UniProtKB/TrEMBL annotation:
This is FAM86 N-terminal domain-containing protein. SUPFAM superfamilies: S-adenosyl-L-methionine-dependent methyltransferases. The lineage of its organism: Eukaryota, Viridiplantae, Streptophyta, Embryophyta, Tracheophyta.
Length: 364
């Protein structure tokens, strides 16, 4: 009984730590802190936060403003509930408010360093739960147009899908449209895709994506690089404009699987997206006919696309389905039948139920 309680307590503290590393909103952090303290933010929880997010234990790339905000919210909550704020937390917060960081990385508020940790559902103890950790530089200012450098729920969902069904992607050439921060590519590399090609049509997003690959010790494709050819941890990061790309531009890739997360965002872009999907799905010159048993979601003759999306605008989604049908593409919703495992139980802001997963193939 005592062992089970200790295990549960360790699990809750792990969730709190991972949520902070992932840059979860303050309200979510407070909720996890309360849960770890059995209903309130105890001295033990406060000490845990200090031990893990101050001094030598904090990564210099992490956003200092974010951590300071969390400490401020914790202090306010404990005080309002007539609890005891430990002196060390007061001192740390006061020091942060008075000091002016000289390190440009700490002062950078437009981008935020995040660690997204995927937790395995099968484990012997809490310390062995981590499946894969993705280190990402993400925009903290979506309102200024940095949407490509932001972390979206569909990319989390698609990453969970990849980790839940690794055999689909293992040894396959995978090509992602609108790769953003590159999270999906990191997961594809983890499950053993033979080739990972990440693309985006925004140059600043592409530059940030390359930085993220380097953060995760992944080699970026370079011309005539023998070291890269021999490396298993490699990705290609390519500029791709849906409006301008031609079939000859895509001929060299021959992908087995095409992926995309939250790429149906504008009705104006939908026809270009469908055109690119059609060209990529024709790469092998084969149709997407099912070769497995009836009802098998994953067995196809030719290339297949998996698109995760949140339907924020029904008109945009309907525009996509119509354009896909006109282009003789089959778009099947497999969200329920191929639901991924929950690898991110600590991300309270992540609404998995809002994401739809489509399987797209060429009609025969």
């Amino acid at each position: 009984m005592a062992d089970a309680a200790a295990q549960e307590g360790a699990e809750q503290l792990l969730h709190l730590k991972l949520a902070l590393l992932a840059g979860e909103p303050p309200a979510c952090i407070l909720a996890l802190a309360r849960k770890a303290g059995g209903g309130s933010i105890t001295s033990h929880v406060q000490n845990f936060l200090l031990e893990n997010f101050t001094g030598t234990n904090v990564d210099r790339r992490q956003n200092s403003t974010y951590t300071t905000t969390i400490f401020k919210r914790v202090i306010s909550e404990v005080e309002l509930s007539s609890g005891v704020v430990i002196d060390e937390l007061y001192e740390e917060f006061a020091q942060r408010m008075l000091s002016k960081a000289k390190d440009s990385l700490l002062n950078r508020t437009d981008f935020m360093y995040k660690e997204i940790s995927f937790l395995s559902s099968t484990y012997d103890n809490v310390s062995s739960r981590l499946s894969v950790v993705a280190r990402l530089s993400c925009s903290s200012n979506m309102l200024e147009g940095d949407t490509g450098c932001s972390l979206w729920p569909s990319s989390l969902f698609l990453s969970e899908f990849i980790l839940s069904y690794p055999k689909i992607f293992s040894t396959k050439c995978c090509f992602e449209l609108g790769s953003g921060v590159g999270l999906v590519g990191i997961c594809l590399n983890y499950v053993g895709a033979s080739k990972v090609i990440l693309t985006d049509g925004d140059t600043s997003t592409l530059a940030n994506m390359k930085e993220n690959m380097e953060l995760n010790n992944l080699c970026i494709e370079q011309e005539d690089s023998e070291v890269l050819k021999e490396s298993k941890n490699k990705v290609e990061c390519k500029y791709l404009s849906w409006e301008e790309v031609s079939e000859s531009d895509l001929r060299c890739y021959q992908p087995d699987i095409i992926l995309g997360a939250d790429i149906m965002y504008d009705p104006v872009c939908v026809p270009h997206l469908v055109r690119v999907l059609s060209m990529l799905l024709r790469r092998h010159g084969r149709q997407g006919e099912t070769r497995g048993k009836s009802g098998d979601e994953f067995e196809t003759e030719g290339p297949v696309a998996y698109i995760a999306t949140v339907i924020r605008n029904a008109e945009t989604f309907n525009c996509f389905t119509k354009s896909a049908a006109d282009a003789k593409l089959s778009a099947i919703n497999i969200t329920s039948s191929a639901a991924p495992s929950n690898f991110l139980p600590y991300m309270l802001s992540y609404d998995r139920s809002s994401v739809q997963l489509l399987k797209i193939t060429l009609l025969s």
